[in-house]
Write a structure and sequence with these properties.
Jelly Rolls, Galactose-bd-like_sf, mainly beta, 10 strands, four-stranded antiparallel sheet, single chain, globular, 131 residues
């Protein structure tokens, strides 16, 4: 049995579990820090999603005019604390970054993206099965 691609918009975060996050409609619905005054506060995005069990490569589409590396956790396991660690040369210039490989469980999984200050602007998240 082959696992299926899992893909969702960055706007699909769980609002009740996320912290200082905003969907910026002026920037093509990119997920950003909640507002200018909160740039120095911790930011956290939480996603719950369904998957088939197996190993996946995680990619995130994002934009950043300045370097804003984030920590990425899948099901409580740290994948990296230096994801999205380069500028894309603009807040609306989207690039795709490979975050790393991870194991997903059958059924519900949890992705957490966090940073002690403002996050990059996020667009899409993709888990690609590795057969």
């Amino acid at each position: 049995m082959h696992s299926a691609l899992v893909q969702f918009s960055a706007t699909d975060f769980v609002r009740e579990e996320s912290v200082n996050i905003f969907v910026n409609h002026a920037f093509n619905d990119l997920v950003t820090n909640s507002e200018k005054d909160n740039e120095q506060l911790p930011q956290k995005l939480v996603y719950h999603f369904y998957a088939d069990p197996g190993e996946y490569e995680l990619k995130i589409c994002y934009a950043a005019d300045e370097i804003r590396p984030v920590s990425v956790y899948v099901n409580g396991n740290l994948i990296t604390d230096r994801a999205l660690a380069k500028s894309t040369n603009g807040w609306t210039r989207i690039e795709t970054s490979v975050v790393g490989s991870t194991l997903l469980n059958s059924g519900v999984n949890t992705l957490v993206i966090s940073r002690e200050t403002a996050i990059p602007h996020l667009q899409q998240i993709t888990f690609t099965p590795q057969w």
